[in-house]
Amino acid sequence: MADRTKNLRALFSLALLCALSATTPSLGTPEEADRSEERARNSFIDQFAKFTADKNVQGKTKNALGKAVPGKNKTRFNKDDGLPFESDLTYHDFSYNTLVPDPEKPAAPAAGAPAPAKPKDIQLFAHISDHGGISAAGGSSLLERTVFGLDKALTKADEKKSGAPEQEGVRNRSVFTITTAKIFKKPDQADPGDKAKEGEPEKVDRFELRDEARPQIEKVGETSAETILRSARGEQNANDPSALGNGVLLRQAAAEATKALWNSTLSNLSQRRANRAIRSGAMPVAPQLSEGVANCDEWSKVALDVIEKDSKGDLKQKERLLADLERMSSECKELASRPFDEVNPRYEANEDGKTESLKTGNAATEDALQRDARLQLQIMNEAGKSVMEFPTNWEFSKEDDKAKMTISYDENNPKQGALTVKEQLESYNANLKDAEEGYKEVQQRFSGLKMEKPTDYAIKPGTTNILQINQPPVSAFEEVGIRKPVQSDPAPQTYKDLIKSGQSN
User: Fold this and answer.
1) Lower CB density within 10 Å: C or N end of the chain?
2) Rounded Cα–Cα distance for residues 210 and 179 (Å)
C-alpha cells in the first residue's frame, strides 16, 4: 500500500514539474527528446530482465513487456506451482504423510548380496520436504534443508521428553504446534496427515509453527529477501545498503511473491484433497499428487505399474485393483476441476452402495490443513475480508486477521505494528483522498492541466484479489515509453487451471 502511495506522490510531483516547465523555454530538439526516451526505455527493459533473473524473485525471467526470456539463474520450474528450483524458498513437499527413503540410514545388505540394499523408509509428516535430506549440490533449497533439519532435531527432542506432561489440548509434532479445540463424538478419520483408522475420533485442530522453529525459518526469508534488495539497487549500488532500490522492480517482486504464495497454497490444498477425499478401496493408497507426479494421469500411470508388479498373476485381484484405479482416476480429475473455495469436498457412497458422489459443504468435519489452505486462498481472493466471514470449524479471533509489519518510521527507525488487510486498504484509500486534495490545488493554479482523480484507484475491502492489488502500476511503465506492459494472468481457481498455466508460461 505504501509503495502505491509513493507512486501517487511521485506522479503529483511530476505533474507539478511539467506544469511549471510549460512557462519556460524547452531545451533540446524533438529528435533529441525521442532518443532520450528510447535510451530510458531500453535501460529499463534491460534492468527489468536482470532483476527478474534473480533466483529469489519468483516466476520466470521476464522483460518489461512481460515476455519470458532466458535466465541463467532460473532454468527449471516446478510442474505443479511453477516456482523456480534455484530459489532459496523452493519447497517440494507432500501435503500428506508419506514414506520416503532415509538418506542417512541405508538398510544392511543381505549376506552375499551383489549390491547394497535400498535405504530404509521413514515416515515424513505432512509438509516436510524429503529434499531437505540432500545437499545443496544435490538440488535442495535452503528452506528445504532448514525445515528438514528442524524436523529431525525437534522430533528427536520430543522423543526424549516422551511421557512428560503437556498443556491440555496442545501437542508438538515435527515443526508444528497442534492445538485441539474439540473432539467429535462420532469417529470418522484420524488426525490430519494420518491415514484414517476406524474407531479414532476426529478432532478440530489448528497447526502453527513451533516457537523453536519459527526464527530459523524466518531467517531463510530474510536471507532470500536480501538478494532481491541488492538486485533492485542495480549493479553499481548492489552492496550499498543505504541506496534505495527501484520501486517498480520491488513491486514486481511483491507481485511474483504473491502469485507464488497463491499457486503453492492452491497446489497443496488440491493435492491433499485428492489424497483425503478419495477412497482407496483395494488399492494400497489414495492418489498421491506432488511436484514429481503433478496430475491425475501421471499418478494413474505410476499406480498401473504398481498393479502390474503386485498382482503376481492373480487375475481377480488385478481386476479389483484396476476397477478401483479407474474410479480414483476419474474422481481425481473431477476434484482437480473444482474451485478452491468449495468446503470439504469428499466422495461418499450413494444409496445403491455401488457408486459414489462428490459431497461438499460440511465445514464441521473439514481437516485442519485443508481448512487453513482454503481460508488462506479465500482471504487473498477477497482482500480485506475477515477470516471469520468464511465457513470454518475453528473459532478464529480478530488477532488472526492481523499481520506484523512496519507501520511508520521514527527518525529513520522502523516502527513495528500489526494491521489487518482491511485497515491497510482503508489507510491507502485515505491517502488517495489526501492526494486528490493536492491535485485540486495544482488545478486551481493551472486551469488547463488535466489530471486523473486519485480516488478512482480506491479499493473497496473484500472486492479484489490481492494478486491484482500487488501488480506494478501501468503508469510506471508508461513513464519510460512502454505503453502496453503485459500484466499477469488472473489467479487460477482450480488445480486443473494451475497445472495448465504452468505448462503455458
Assistant:
1) C
2) 11
Q: How far apart are CA 150 and CA 20, in angstroms?
A: 60
Residues with Cβ within 8 Å of 297's Cβ and at least 6 positions away in sequence, in order, are: 329
The sheet carrying 170-173 orders its strands as: 170-173, 176-183, 203-209
Q: Minimal CA–CA distance to 78: which of 438, 389, 499, 423?
A: 499
Average confidence score pLDDT of the chain: 85
High-pLDDT (> 70) share of the chain, %? 86
Tell me: pLDDT of 318 over 80: yes
Query: Quick one: pLDDT at residue 123?
Result: 86
- Enumerate helices (H) and strands (E) in the chain, giving the number of each: 12, 9
Between the CA of residue 20 and those of 8, 17, 139, 264, 439, what are the distances in Å?
A: 18, 5, 57, 49, 14
The C-alpha atoms of residue 335 and residue 378 are separated, in whole angstroms, by 18
Q: What is the pTM of this model?
A: 0.86
Residue corresponding to grid cell 523453536: 212
All three cell numbers of 470, joined, read 500487488
Q: Are 147 and 221 spatial neighbours (Cβ–Cβ below 8 Å)?
A: no
The grid coordinates listed for 134 are 540432500
Rounded Cα gap, residues 339 and 493, in angstroms? 5
Tens of pLDDT, residue by residue over 38-81, are 887 888 888 999 999 999 999 999 988 888 888 888 999 999 99
